[in-house]
Amino acid sequence: MLAEQAQTTAHLVSFSRSGDGTLLIRIAGAWRLRHGMPTASAVAGEFAPPSPPRRVAFEASGLTRWDSSLVNFVNQVNQLCHERSIEIDLSGLPAGLQRLVKLAEAMPEKKEARAPERRAGWIERIGIATIGLNQSAGEFFGFLGEIAVAFVSMARGKARYRGSDLIEIIQQCGANALGIVTLISYLVGTIVAFMGAVQLQRFGAGIYVADLVAIGIIREMGAMMTGIIMAGRTGAAFAAQLGTMKVTQEIDALTTMGVSPIEFLVLPRVIALVLMMPLLCLYADFVGVLGGASVSVGMLGISFHAYVRQSAHAVTLTDLAGGLLKATVYGGLVAYAGCLRGFQCGGSSASVGIAATEAVVTGIVMIVVACGIFAVVFHVLDL
Amino acid sequence: MGAGIKTNHTEGAAQEESGRPPRVHIEVRNLTMAYGDFVVMRDLNFTVRHGDVFIIMGGSGCGKSTLMHHMIALKEPASGEVLYDGISITRAPADEREVMRRRFGVTYQSGALWTSMTLAENVGLPLAEFTDLNPGEIREIASLKLALVGLKGFEDFYPSQISGGMQKRAGLARAIALDPEVLFFDEPSSGLDPITSSLLDDLLLELRDSLGATIVVVSHELASIFRIGNDSILLDAESRTMIARGDPRELLAHSSDPRVIRFLTRGRSAAKSEKSYG
Hints:
The complex is a heterodimer of chains A (383) and B (278).
Chain A: H1 2-9, E1 13-17, E2 22-30, H2 41-47, E3 55-65, H3 68-83, E4 87-89, H4 95-106, H5 122-155, H6 163-173, H7 178-200, H8 209-247, H9 250-256, H10 261-300, H11 304-314, H12 317-343, H13 349-380
Parallel strand pairs in A: 2-3, 3-4
Antiparallel strand pairs in A: 1-2
Chain B: H1 2-18, E1 24-35, E2 38-49, E3 53-58, H2 64-71, E4 79-84, E5 87-88, H3 94-101, E6 104-107, H4 119-130, H5 135-148, H6 164-175, E7 182-186, H7 194-211, E8 214-218, H8 222-228, E9 231-236, E10 241-245, H9 248-254, H10 258-264, H11 270-277
């Protein structure tokens, strides 16, 4: 390809020498950026010993069209001449081209601007990672502390946030989430019931599908599925909203006005999700059990009435309360992850996307870890 | 595109020698812009000649940037059309419109650099998309363009690592990557200090003179308007149409419309302002 390009661009440049040591570079034809360009490497060959030129001049009478490809070529020749202290005469070139070469030359390179490229050794990398981990942990717990302080402020009636914002966020993460919660919960209920039915039917214990679905959904799956949905939906939205506000300096504007961004922005989001999650979980439990019922009625021939009675018999109030408690905690964790990542967002639009992704990942990881802790605690307490 | 530069250059010189006026490059014909039922501007008629620095003037919120968006066919007009060398971009099919847009370089108020890319990658992207250059050559041209706007050495920096003025200049470097025939510049002076703003004006004039490009600038910065503009229109939010057309200095000296004088003198009297701007 390079050879082909060299062939197609060879007719654009030619060289000749005069007796006074001048290298005359003849520029001809149409110089088109779109179709490749000659490089200054050919000129470098002319500069090589034993007879480097004392002066370089251009002749462009055969030039029909030019663009940046020619500017780049002349600029490179110019740099080569400067490096080798060879006199260069640009007067044979079009006036506009001369001006552009001078313009590129006029702005000195900011050498200190180039970022140093040094690869750290493995010990250094471990050290950097450890320091980074330490900083992340500090930010994580620091943010938790700031939220705790904001809640104390709220308890004392001194927190500043707008009630209308709280209502709007409650609507966004409550009523507006019903559609997706319905779909996922119903499907999870049917999947659990179907898997149970295939196994239990073989032992003539099809009716126990109701127990499986009710206990599974109400104790564990309802809260977890709702938490994961909200992490993907609302947690990411919180991070994106706050991240964008960080990029556009809206958070700085709040701070400089003496309004705590934690109270004004984080508090309503945490309250809204903590309030809405148990309600959404309760709704998800109901829809999940309905999903299980539809499989049992359709596939096992169990009556709807018998299914409901069996489900009510299987589940205790403790199961329901445990599920709702988990949902409340998951809501707090998702809101926390979303707000934390939003506040940690960098100054560019790309970092908003990163913040949203990190909010989802952090939220889900925290939910799973909390789920494990709940399992152990409930077992110890014999609940 | 490259052909355009040389063509413009030689054509302009030939026209100058022969005393012919420069050819019309852009024509805005009976253009009405609207958002739904709300008419922003109506019945706009004007032409921009090859090699002009044409200023779209007007108060804040009157529709200057909207007009620019219509001129680059980012927005559909309610009626009317915009023509480049006699060819309507408004009525062109989508693929043809794409090809026509490659003749434009556009810089936006905020720079609109892609934040996930370095400056060299920002400038190199159009070169990678629309030329046969290899990565090394793309890098060379990107460095050259950045050097032209005074950002030599900043190739590997991300937009978030440079100042607002530098972002504007990097945006200009990206806009001239493909040697455009027409350069659109939305509010070049906004957010810049007077010295940086003046340097950017110089740079625009230098690029116009050397590249031979036609430059359309959206601005309400009077110092910049009088310095670089050789033709202009003034949009009026109240009457929702253009109320003046011509060289800004000529308008200041000869216009009898009080709205024009008020705009061009920041509300002061014409006599005073003539002294100020000479």
